[in-house]
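Re: folding output
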Amino acid sequence: GKKNKSKDMSKDESAEDESDEEESKDEEETKEGKKIPSKSTRPITLKNEMLVDNELFSITAKSIDEDSEYGYTVYLLIENKSPDKTYTFNIQKGEVNGVEVNLYTVIFVNPQKKANTSVIIDDLKEYGIEEYTDIELTVDVTEGKYTYDKPYVMSESVHIYPYGKENATEFVYEAKAGDQVLVDNEYVTVIYTGDNKENELGYSINLYIVNKTDKDITVSGDDMSINGYMAEAYYDQHISAGKISLSGIQWYGETFKENDMDESKINDIEFSLDIYPEDDAEAEHFFNGMLKFAP
């Protein structure tokens, strides 16, 4: 929730003289010129915390900026202890409070060298997650520079607790009246949790997906139509074993213009979902079929 500024400026003239630095720490200018608090309600306590320290490398979480120009950012220091091997560190899987997030950090570090890098984390506020209390990152390490096809030298799961481990929480989804269960079998649950007609890019729907299996899965959407018109959108989601995903399918404004459709009068959405073990598309799929519903 957005909170109003607690200080009443008209009553406190001296508030005008607060330094810009202090001002920018607490708040962010919105486009309309109104000020809204842009940080979570309590201060982040994490500073220079060693996440992993083994014979090959160490990783330290240096700090967190909730409000960097790219969004929520975790700053890491990686040290390669090997006397003669370069390692590439892939951080492309992670969770916040148990909810899957998409990460894109890849960095190589030469022997006996250190490197600073950052991990940018999805904005989950629209799903009601204001405070990131438990950030889990999977760090896959390969030998050499940018070696995607090589086997992992090591794969480490590390937890970052911005407010301390004792304050870690797990997201629990609360069902709402308009929810529609689209898939529910022994492997996965997929629930439509609402749409966004005011979406500035066009129109989107939100999905809540539970991976009940002990395998990482891929959830891939295709063959999409709205009100009987083909309306493609990209949807490809990774969900780690036993984790959950909050994600959206985004259709852009042009789709509605070219099909002469009103985004506020959508009464039929269809798409296929294919859900299968991430590393084995040949294995039996956990679900593969068309879904049809009225938002």
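--- second protein (sequence, then structure) ---
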Amino acid sequence: NSLIARVDYTSSAKAIVYNIENKNEPQREREVALEGNYLDSRMVGDNLYLISRKYAYFYDGVIDNTILPAMEDSISSASEVKRIDCTDIVHFEGTNDPSFMMVGGFNINENEEVCIETFFGAGDTVYANENNLYLTQNMWGDNPKTTIYKFALEESRIKLLAKGEVKGQLNNQFSMDEYDGNLRV
């Protein structure tokens, strides 16, 4: 008789907002946590965009619900962990990455719940400016290429605008910039 055990763990990318009007006694005002590992974040004005990546673990005996990523926002009326419904997850077609990517946007000075967009097929590199966020995904193989997704940033919300591909791989986020509305890589 053999016993097989699996230890599950969860990690979260967490943003904690403090009021520092009184620098001697900072006050914690809010916490937003996205299940998965921290990928990147950007602050545009008063809006924070937090990005996490969670690998989709599949194994015998897994409970289906735990495969889906979760989030938590301390200002939510329920203030509890909330699983993202599978009908709210966008699939990046052609992806070879079995991970979920979550982008959470919220205004640090408002009491509105975090706006979450979730994608199956995670990204590697993030570039953002005041209007747009770009996410890249490396595709390895005989003909390596980089898939680029463009999102509009609108008052703590993101909206997928376009998808494109270039040959080769990007070095890092500094291999991208936007000039006159065009992305340069």
